[in-house]
Fold ECF transporter S component.
Amino acid sequence: MAKTKLLTTTALIAALCVVGSFIKIPVPPGTPALDAAPAFLSIAFLPAPFAAAAGIIGHLATALTSGFPLTLPLHLLIAAEMGIVVLGAALLYRAGMKKIAWLWIIIANGILSPLPFYFILSKAIYSAIAPGILMATLINVGVAVLAMPMLQKVFQRRGANIL
């Protein structure tokens, strides 16, 4: 991708993540939203670091629209985790391991990402938020997986190809 096209596409995905941040998923801790779905979708056509940047921006937008309920430092940690999750998924997807990429997202974001809160806050907080984060992850992955075939058709009409 040309640099301008790459930056524009990344900005559009980040903007979709911000829009998704306003669509909250009603589970504890209250911040999960559809901010991750566009970033998860972008693993098919953006280079890994750019997809990760969109995921980071998406989480920060969600935290901002929720009032940073877990404090800014903890939301920065979550944003970094989101970046790692999307980066890893993009690398796996680009390597042809599509199903493993989706499984990585579910395990890394839905199960492993809440683990630091077990040690930082408490076992009770972890037990309260982990199921909701897993549910939100499954919803975001579901939206991305359902949108993928439609996106493929759009790319094919434009003469481009997604992996």
